[in-house]
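note to self: dont lose this again. the chain is below, predicted strucutre after it. 107 aa total, dont forget to put it in the shared folder this time
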Amino acid sequence: MRIGKPIISFTAALLLLGAGVVFFVHTPWTDRLNPLIPTTTSYATVPRDTQTYTNVKLYTRAGKPLPDTLGRVGGFDATRQFIQIHHKGQYVQRIRYIAQLPYPAAH
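---
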């Protein structure tokens, strides 16, 4: 079978390319699949009167800023300002509106 060897090589190359994309490209879709990215809980202040938040700056429970920002977060309550975000890299699993931040808002 001379045709089988090129098909196996092509399939292996596609699998390696797909694995490289999952590990090195950070989008909500690839971060969702990447087993090396942990699921974390972060906090943020978001603008009111909108339900689509862009470039959301993240903070730890202690109020320390995280180096990453979330490109886009969809909300459901335009009157609330503080959110708790459960995310895996750029992939947002869920948000929860909270009454106040768990740290003093000094930023």
